[in-house]
Design goal:
It contains 14 helices and 19 strands. It is an alpha+beta fold.
Length: 423
Amino acid sequence: MPDRAGSPAPASRLTTDAIAELEVVLGPGGLHLDEAALAVYARDASHLTLGRPCAVALPADPFTLQRVVAVCARRGIPVVCRGTGTGLSGGAVPHEGDLVLSTARLNRLDNLDPHTLTLHAGAGVLNDQVTRFASYAGLHFAPDPSSQAAASIGGNIAENAGGPHCLRLGVTRRHLRRLDWVDASGRAWTTGRGLPLERGVDFVSLLCGSEGTLGVVTGADLALVPDPPAVVTLLAFFPELDRATGAVVGLLGEGMLPVAVEMVDQAMLVAIEEAFGFGFPTDVAAAMIVEFAGLPEEVKEDAAAAERFLAEEGASEIRTAADRDERTELWKCRKKAFGAVGRLAPSYVTMDVVVPLGSLPALVDEIQVIKTRHGVEVATAFHAGDGNLHPGVHYDERDPVQTRAAHAAADEIIQAALRRGGS
Protein backbone atom coordinates (compact mmCIF):
# COMPACT_ATOMS: atom_id res chain seq x y z
CA MET A 1 0.00 0.00 0.00
CA PRO A 2 1.21 3.60 -0.58
CA ASP A 3 3.25 5.33 2.11
CA ARG A 4 0.77 7.11 4.38
CA ALA A 5 3.56 9.18 5.93
CA GLY A 6 4.05 11.02 2.62
CA SER A 7 2.09 13.93 1.21
CA PRO A 8 -1.68 13.39 1.13
CA ALA A 9 -3.01 12.68 -2.34
CA PRO A 10 -5.36 15.25 -3.85
CA ALA A 11 -8.96 14.15 -4.32
CA SER A 12 -8.68 14.99 -8.02
CA ARG A 13 -6.90 11.64 -8.61
CA LEU A 14 -10.36 10.06 -8.51
CA THR A 15 -11.35 11.22 -11.99
CA THR A 16 -14.68 10.61 -13.68
CA ASP A 17 -13.05 7.81 -15.66
CA ALA A 18 -11.70 6.23 -12.45
CA ILE A 19 -15.14 6.39 -10.83
CA ALA A 20 -16.71 4.74 -13.84
CA GLU A 21 -14.11 1.97 -13.88
CA LEU A 22 -14.47 1.29 -10.17
CA GLU A 23 -18.26 1.21 -10.41
CA VAL A 24 -18.04 -1.44 -13.12
CA VAL A 25 -15.59 -3.50 -11.07
CA LEU A 26 -17.54 -3.23 -7.80
CA GLY A 27 -21.08 -3.48 -9.16
CA PRO A 28 -24.22 -1.89 -7.68
CA GLY A 29 -23.73 -0.53 -4.17
CA GLY A 30 -20.02 -1.27 -4.14
CA LEU A 31 -18.66 2.27 -4.47
CA HIS A 32 -19.81 5.05 -2.13
CA LEU A 33 -19.23 8.72 -2.90
CA ASP A 34 -21.96 10.35 -0.82
CA GLU A 35 -21.08 12.77 1.95
CA ALA A 36 -22.51 10.58 4.72
CA ALA A 37 -20.32 7.61 3.77
CA LEU A 38 -17.22 9.78 3.38
CA ALA A 39 -17.79 11.28 6.84
CA VAL A 40 -18.28 7.89 8.51
CA TYR A 41 -15.26 6.27 6.85
CA ALA A 42 -13.00 9.24 7.63
CA ARG A 43 -12.76 8.03 11.23
CA ASP A 44 -12.45 4.89 13.30
CA ALA A 45 -12.87 4.30 17.03
CA SER A 46 -9.65 6.22 17.76
CA HIS A 47 -11.42 9.55 17.05
CA LEU A 48 -8.37 10.63 15.03
CA THR A 49 -8.91 12.57 11.80
CA LEU A 50 -6.46 13.15 8.95
CA GLY A 51 -8.79 14.02 6.10
CA ARG A 52 -11.78 12.99 4.06
CA PRO A 53 -11.53 10.00 1.71
CA CYS A 54 -12.31 10.43 -1.96
CA ALA A 55 -14.45 7.26 -2.01
CA VAL A 56 -15.30 4.08 -0.13
CA ALA A 57 -15.05 0.70 -1.87
CA LEU A 58 -16.80 -2.38 -0.47
CA PRO A 59 -15.87 -5.37 -2.65
CA ALA A 60 -18.08 -8.44 -2.26
CA ASP A 61 -15.33 -11.03 -2.74
CA PRO A 62 -11.51 -11.33 -2.81
CA PHE A 63 -11.28 -11.25 -6.61
CA THR A 64 -13.20 -7.97 -6.77
CA LEU A 65 -10.97 -6.53 -4.07
CA GLN A 66 -7.94 -7.58 -6.10
CA ARG A 67 -9.28 -5.73 -9.15
CA VAL A 68 -9.99 -2.58 -7.08
CA VAL A 69 -6.40 -2.51 -5.81
CA ALA A 70 -5.12 -2.98 -9.36
CA VAL A 71 -7.21 -0.04 -10.63
CA CYS A 72 -6.01 2.20 -7.80
CA ALA A 73 -2.37 1.17 -8.36
CA ARG A 74 -2.57 1.95 -12.06
CA ARG A 75 -4.23 5.31 -11.48
CA GLY A 76 -2.09 6.35 -8.49
CA ILE A 77 -4.97 6.46 -5.99
CA PRO A 78 -3.72 5.81 -2.42
CA VAL A 79 -5.60 3.05 -0.60
CA VAL A 80 -6.27 2.67 3.13
CA CYS A 81 -7.61 -0.68 4.36
CA ARG A 82 -10.45 -0.89 6.86
CA GLY A 83 -12.17 -3.68 8.74
CA THR A 84 -15.13 -2.69 10.89
CA GLY A 85 -13.50 0.47 12.27
CA THR A 86 -13.24 -0.61 15.93
CA GLY A 87 -9.48 0.00 16.19
CA LEU A 88 -8.14 2.53 18.68
CA SER A 89 -4.78 3.24 17.01
CA GLY A 90 -5.99 5.08 13.90
CA GLY A 91 -4.87 2.32 11.53
CA ALA A 92 -7.96 2.74 9.33
CA VAL A 93 -7.95 6.57 9.21
CA PRO A 94 -7.42 7.97 5.68
CA HIS A 95 -5.58 11.07 4.52
CA GLU A 96 -7.42 13.61 2.40
CA GLY A 97 -8.09 12.02 -1.00
CA ASP A 98 -7.33 8.38 -0.07
CA LEU A 99 -9.71 5.62 -1.09
CA VAL A 100 -10.95 3.56 1.85
CA LEU A 101 -11.04 -0.15 0.97
CA SER A 102 -13.36 -2.02 3.33
CA THR A 103 -13.12 -5.79 3.77
CA ALA A 104 -16.44 -5.97 5.64
CA ARG A 105 -18.20 -7.98 2.92
CA LEU A 106 -15.57 -10.72 2.77
CA ASN A 107 -17.56 -12.81 5.24
CA ARG A 108 -17.03 -16.39 4.13
CA LEU A 109 -16.64 -18.77 7.07
CA ASP A 110 -16.07 -22.49 6.47
CA ASN A 111 -13.68 -25.48 6.39
CA LEU A 112 -13.82 -26.18 10.11
CA ASP A 113 -11.55 -29.19 10.71
CA PRO A 114 -11.80 -30.56 14.26
CA HIS A 115 -8.75 -32.79 13.65
CA THR A 116 -6.30 -30.00 12.67
CA LEU A 117 -8.17 -27.46 14.86
CA THR A 118 -8.44 -24.95 12.01
CA LEU A 119 -11.07 -23.12 9.99
CA HIS A 120 -11.07 -20.53 7.19
CA ALA A 121 -12.47 -17.06 7.78
CA GLY A 122 -12.81 -14.16 5.38
CA ALA A 123 -11.38 -10.85 6.54
CA GLY A 124 -14.87 -9.46 7.18
CA VAL A 125 -15.98 -12.24 9.53
CA LEU A 126 -16.45 -10.99 13.08
CA ASN A 127 -14.25 -12.37 15.84
CA ASP A 128 -17.21 -13.52 17.90
CA GLN A 129 -18.75 -15.28 14.88
CA VAL A 130 -15.70 -17.51 14.63
CA THR A 131 -16.02 -18.73 18.21
CA ARG A 132 -19.78 -19.29 17.88
CA PHE A 133 -19.23 -21.19 14.61
CA ALA A 134 -16.57 -23.42 16.23
CA SER A 135 -18.41 -23.94 19.50
CA TYR A 136 -20.29 -27.07 18.35
CA ALA A 137 -16.90 -28.78 18.00
CA GLY A 138 -15.83 -27.66 21.48
CA LEU A 139 -13.36 -25.12 20.05
CA HIS A 140 -12.88 -21.36 20.08
CA PHE A 141 -10.65 -18.60 18.71
CA ALA A 142 -8.42 -17.44 21.57
CA PRO A 143 -7.88 -13.72 20.74
CA ASP A 144 -10.83 -11.85 22.26
CA PRO A 145 -10.41 -8.06 22.06
CA SER A 146 -12.90 -5.93 23.97
CA SER A 147 -14.61 -5.13 20.66
CA GLN A 148 -14.95 -8.87 19.96
CA ALA A 149 -18.63 -8.70 18.98
CA ALA A 150 -17.92 -6.05 16.32
CA ALA A 151 -14.23 -6.49 15.40
CA SER A 152 -13.41 -8.34 12.18
CA ILE A 153 -10.78 -11.03 11.68
CA GLY A 154 -9.05 -8.83 9.10
CA GLY A 155 -8.83 -6.03 11.67
CA ASN A 156 -7.54 -8.46 14.32
CA ILE A 157 -4.77 -9.50 11.92
CA ALA A 158 -3.98 -5.93 10.88
CA GLU A 159 -3.53 -4.88 14.52
CA ASN A 160 -2.23 -8.22 15.86
CA ALA A 161 -5.03 -7.95 18.40
CA GLY A 162 -4.94 -9.58 21.79
CA GLY A 163 -7.59 -9.32 24.47
CA PRO A 164 -8.00 -10.46 28.06
CA HIS A 165 -7.06 -14.08 27.38
CA CYS A 166 -3.83 -13.35 25.51
CA LEU A 167 -1.99 -13.49 28.86
CA ARG A 168 -1.63 -17.26 28.56
CA LEU A 169 -2.91 -18.02 25.07
CA GLY A 170 -1.11 -15.34 23.06
CA VAL A 171 -2.12 -12.62 20.60
CA THR A 172 -3.49 -13.07 17.07
CA ARG A 173 -0.19 -14.03 15.39
CA ARG A 174 0.04 -17.16 17.50
CA HIS A 175 -3.32 -18.32 16.15
CA LEU A 176 -2.76 -17.89 12.41
CA ARG A 177 -1.83 -20.69 10.02
CA ARG A 178 -2.11 -19.13 6.57
CA LEU A 179 -3.13 -15.79 5.03
CA ASP A 180 -4.65 -14.96 1.66
CA TRP A 181 -3.58 -11.45 0.68
CA VAL A 182 -3.33 -8.94 -2.15
CA ASP A 183 -0.22 -6.84 -2.74
CA ALA A 184 -0.10 -3.15 -3.73
CA SER A 185 -0.21 -4.01 -7.43
CA GLY A 186 -3.36 -6.09 -7.13
CA ARG A 187 -1.73 -9.52 -7.27
CA ALA A 188 -3.14 -12.29 -5.05
CA TRP A 189 -0.90 -14.44 -2.84
CA THR A 190 -1.14 -17.16 -0.20
CA THR A 191 1.42 -17.61 2.58
CA GLY A 192 2.57 -21.21 2.35
CA ARG A 193 0.62 -24.38 3.09
CA GLY A 194 -0.67 -23.44 6.51
CA LEU A 195 1.46 -25.91 8.45
CA PRO A 196 2.39 -25.20 12.09
CA LEU A 197 6.06 -24.99 11.02
CA GLU A 198 7.21 -23.97 7.54
CA ARG A 199 10.51 -23.03 5.92
CA GLY A 200 11.12 -19.81 4.05
CA VAL A 201 10.14 -16.20 4.67
CA ASP A 202 7.56 -15.87 7.46
CA PHE A 203 5.06 -13.70 5.59
CA VAL A 204 2.37 -14.38 8.20
CA SER A 205 4.41 -12.59 10.86
CA LEU A 206 5.33 -9.84 8.40
CA LEU A 207 1.71 -9.09 7.47
CA CYS A 208 0.18 -9.58 10.93
CA GLY A 209 0.27 -6.24 12.71
CA SER A 210 1.24 -4.20 9.63
CA GLU A 211 -2.15 -2.40 9.60
CA GLY A 212 -2.71 -2.97 5.89
CA THR A 213 0.42 -1.08 4.84
CA LEU A 214 2.12 -4.11 3.23
CA GLY A 215 -0.92 -5.75 1.69
CA VAL A 216 -4.63 -6.44 2.11
CA VAL A 217 -5.47 -9.65 3.97
CA THR A 218 -8.60 -11.15 2.41
CA GLY A 219 -8.87 -14.36 4.43
CA ALA A 220 -7.07 -16.58 6.91
CA ASP A 221 -6.76 -20.13 8.14
CA LEU A 222 -7.17 -19.74 11.90
CA ALA A 223 -5.82 -22.06 14.58
CA LEU A 224 -8.45 -22.84 17.20
CA VAL A 225 -8.04 -24.03 20.79
CA PRO A 226 -10.18 -26.54 22.72
CA ASP A 227 -12.67 -25.23 25.24
CA PRO A 228 -11.26 -25.90 28.73
CA PRO A 229 -13.07 -28.54 30.81
CA ALA A 230 -13.29 -26.22 33.82
CA VAL A 231 -13.24 -22.45 34.36
CA VAL A 232 -13.31 -20.40 37.57
CA THR A 233 -13.64 -16.62 37.44
CA LEU A 234 -12.98 -14.38 40.44
CA LEU A 235 -13.96 -10.72 40.83
CA ALA A 236 -12.01 -8.83 43.51
CA PHE A 237 -12.55 -5.25 44.72
CA PHE A 238 -9.73 -3.18 46.20
CA PRO A 239 -10.10 0.01 48.26
CA GLU A 240 -6.59 1.13 47.24
CA LEU A 241 -5.33 1.23 43.65
CA ASP A 242 -1.67 0.64 44.51
CA ARG A 243 -2.59 -2.47 46.52
CA ALA A 244 -4.47 -3.78 43.47
CA THR A 245 -1.57 -3.29 41.06
CA GLY A 246 0.84 -4.74 43.61
CA ALA A 247 -1.42 -7.76 43.97
CA VAL A 248 -1.17 -8.43 40.22
CA VAL A 249 2.63 -8.53 40.40
CA GLY A 250 2.55 -10.71 43.49
CA LEU A 251 -0.04 -13.11 42.12
CA LEU A 252 2.04 -13.97 39.08
CA GLY A 253 5.16 -13.97 41.21
CA GLU A 254 3.63 -16.80 43.23
CA GLY A 255 3.94 -18.98 40.14
CA MET A 256 0.24 -19.03 39.26
CA LEU A 257 -0.63 -18.43 35.61
CA PRO A 258 -4.27 -17.46 35.13
CA VAL A 259 -5.65 -17.27 31.61
CA ALA A 260 -6.58 -13.65 32.33
CA VAL A 261 -5.94 -10.90 34.88
CA GLU A 262 -7.95 -7.77 34.02
CA MET A 263 -8.64 -4.61 35.97
CA VAL A 264 -10.49 -1.29 35.82
CA ASP A 265 -9.92 1.70 38.08
CA GLN A 266 -12.63 3.57 39.99
CA ALA A 267 -13.35 6.15 37.27
CA MET A 268 -13.91 3.41 34.73
CA LEU A 269 -15.91 1.30 37.17
CA VAL A 270 -18.25 4.22 37.92
CA ALA A 271 -18.86 4.79 34.21
CA ILE A 272 -19.55 1.07 33.63
CA GLU A 273 -21.95 0.86 36.56
CA GLU A 274 -23.84 4.00 35.54
CA ALA A 275 -24.13 2.73 31.97
CA PHE A 276 -25.06 -0.90 32.55
CA GLY A 277 -26.07 -1.32 36.21
CA PHE A 278 -24.18 -4.54 36.95
CA GLY A 279 -24.58 -4.01 40.70
CA PHE A 280 -20.90 -3.41 41.46
CA PRO A 281 -19.74 -1.17 44.32
CA THR A 282 -18.38 2.18 43.11
CA ASP A 283 -16.71 3.28 46.35
CA VAL A 284 -13.63 1.12 45.64
CA ALA A 285 -10.43 2.08 43.84
CA ALA A 286 -10.25 -0.92 41.50
CA ALA A 287 -12.04 -4.06 40.36
CA MET A 288 -10.02 -7.06 39.18
CA ILE A 289 -11.06 -10.16 37.24
CA VAL A 290 -8.87 -13.26 37.59
CA GLU A 291 -9.75 -16.35 35.58
CA PHE A 292 -8.34 -19.87 35.67
CA ALA A 293 -9.06 -22.57 33.10
CA GLY A 294 -7.94 -26.17 32.70
CA LEU A 295 -8.50 -29.48 34.46
CA PRO A 296 -11.11 -29.28 37.26
CA GLU A 297 -8.86 -30.13 40.22
CA GLU A 298 -6.06 -27.87 39.02
CA VAL A 299 -8.42 -24.96 38.46
CA LYS A 300 -10.11 -25.42 41.84
CA GLU A 301 -6.78 -25.38 43.68
CA ASP A 302 -5.42 -22.38 41.79
CA ALA A 303 -8.59 -20.35 42.29
CA ALA A 304 -8.62 -21.08 46.03
CA ALA A 305 -4.96 -20.09 46.34
CA ALA A 306 -5.58 -16.89 44.35
CA GLU A 307 -8.55 -15.97 46.52
CA ARG A 308 -6.47 -16.35 49.68
CA PHE A 309 -3.64 -14.32 48.18
CA LEU A 310 -5.87 -11.45 46.99
CA ALA A 311 -7.51 -11.23 50.41
CA GLU A 312 -4.10 -11.02 52.07
CA GLU A 313 -3.09 -8.28 49.59
CA GLY A 314 -6.00 -6.04 50.55
CA ALA A 315 -9.05 -7.08 48.54
CA SER A 316 -12.13 -5.95 50.45
CA GLU A 317 -14.50 -8.33 48.65
CA ILE A 318 -14.01 -11.34 46.37
CA ARG A 319 -16.80 -12.93 44.35
CA THR A 320 -16.75 -16.18 42.38
CA ALA A 321 -18.91 -16.54 39.28
CA ALA A 322 -21.50 -19.21 40.05
CA ASP A 323 -21.97 -20.38 36.47
CA ARG A 324 -21.30 -19.57 32.82
CA ASP A 325 -24.00 -16.88 32.67
CA GLU A 326 -22.56 -15.07 35.67
CA ARG A 327 -19.06 -15.36 34.22
CA THR A 328 -20.31 -13.82 30.96
CA GLU A 329 -21.77 -10.91 32.93
CA LEU A 330 -18.42 -10.32 34.66
CA TRP A 331 -16.64 -10.19 31.31
CA LYS A 332 -19.22 -7.73 30.01
CA CYS A 333 -18.07 -5.40 32.77
CA ARG A 334 -14.54 -5.39 31.37
CA LYS A 335 -15.33 -5.59 27.67
CA LYS A 336 -17.88 -2.78 27.75
CA ALA A 337 -15.52 -0.40 29.51
CA PHE A 338 -14.76 1.79 26.50
CA GLY A 339 -18.42 1.76 25.52
CA ALA A 340 -19.20 3.55 28.78
CA VAL A 341 -16.58 6.29 28.74
CA GLY A 342 -18.82 8.69 26.85
CA ARG A 343 -20.53 9.33 30.17
CA LEU A 344 -17.34 10.86 31.57
CA ALA A 345 -16.70 13.59 28.97
CA PRO A 346 -17.47 14.45 25.33
CA SER A 347 -13.93 13.56 24.18
CA TYR A 348 -11.04 11.37 25.26
CA VAL A 349 -7.55 10.46 24.14
CA THR A 350 -6.61 6.89 24.91
CA MET A 351 -3.25 5.15 24.93
CA ASP A 352 -2.10 1.56 24.71
CA VAL A 353 1.08 1.28 26.76
CA VAL A 354 2.88 -1.70 28.20
CA VAL A 355 5.69 -1.96 30.75
CA PRO A 356 7.51 -4.88 32.38
CA LEU A 357 5.07 -6.29 34.91
CA GLY A 358 7.19 -5.29 37.90
CA SER A 359 6.99 -1.63 36.77
CA LEU A 360 3.19 -1.58 36.59
CA PRO A 361 2.55 -0.25 40.14
CA ALA A 362 5.08 2.59 39.69
CA LEU A 363 3.59 3.62 36.34
CA VAL A 364 0.07 3.64 37.78
CA ASP A 365 1.27 5.80 40.69
CA GLU A 366 2.86 8.26 38.26
CA ILE A 367 -0.35 8.46 36.20
CA GLN A 368 -2.13 9.68 39.34
CA VAL A 369 0.51 12.42 39.73
CA ILE A 370 0.22 13.40 36.06
CA LYS A 371 -3.56 13.70 36.13
CA THR A 372 -3.42 15.86 39.26
CA ARG A 373 -0.74 18.11 37.75
CA HIS A 374 -2.77 18.72 34.60
CA GLY A 375 -6.17 18.84 36.27
CA VAL A 376 -7.67 16.07 34.11
CA GLU A 377 -9.58 12.88 34.75
CA VAL A 378 -8.08 9.56 33.70
CA ALA A 379 -10.04 6.33 33.52
CA THR A 380 -8.02 3.18 32.95
CA ALA A 381 -8.69 -0.37 31.82
CA PHE A 382 -5.86 -2.87 32.29
CA HIS A 383 -4.71 -6.11 30.73
CA ALA A 384 -2.97 -6.17 34.06
CA GLY A 385 -1.39 -9.61 33.86
CA ASP A 386 1.07 -8.58 31.16
CA GLY A 387 1.62 -4.96 32.24
CA ASN A 388 -0.61 -3.55 29.48
CA LEU A 389 -2.95 -0.66 30.24
CA HIS A 390 -5.27 1.73 28.41
CA PRO A 391 -5.42 5.08 30.21
CA GLY A 392 -8.08 7.38 28.76
CA VAL A 393 -7.71 11.12 29.42
CA HIS A 394 -11.12 12.79 29.28
CA TYR A 395 -11.85 16.34 28.17
CA ASP A 396 -14.16 18.58 26.15
CA GLU A 397 -12.61 19.32 22.75
CA ARG A 398 -14.67 22.52 22.56
CA ASP A 399 -12.49 23.91 25.35
CA PRO A 400 -8.95 24.62 24.06
CA VAL A 401 -7.52 24.74 27.60
CA GLN A 402 -8.89 21.30 28.42
CA THR A 403 -7.73 19.96 25.07
CA ARG A 404 -4.15 21.11 25.60
CA ALA A 405 -4.11 19.75 29.15
CA ALA A 406 -5.48 16.35 28.09
CA HIS A 407 -2.97 15.84 25.28
CA ALA A 408 -0.09 17.05 27.44
CA ALA A 409 -1.08 14.53 30.11
CA ALA A 410 -1.33 11.76 27.49
CA ASP A 411 2.15 12.58 26.19
CA GLU A 412 3.56 12.44 29.72
CA ILE A 413 1.94 9.04 30.36
CA ILE A 414 3.56 7.64 27.22
CA GLN A 415 6.93 9.06 28.19
CA ALA A 416 6.54 7.60 31.69
CA ALA A 417 6.00 4.14 30.17
CA LEU A 418 8.99 4.50 27.84
CA ARG A 419 11.26 5.52 30.73
CA ARG A 420 10.38 2.24 32.44
CA GLY A 421 11.44 0.13 29.48
CA GLY A 422 7.92 -0.02 28.07
CA SER A 423 6.38 0.50 24.67
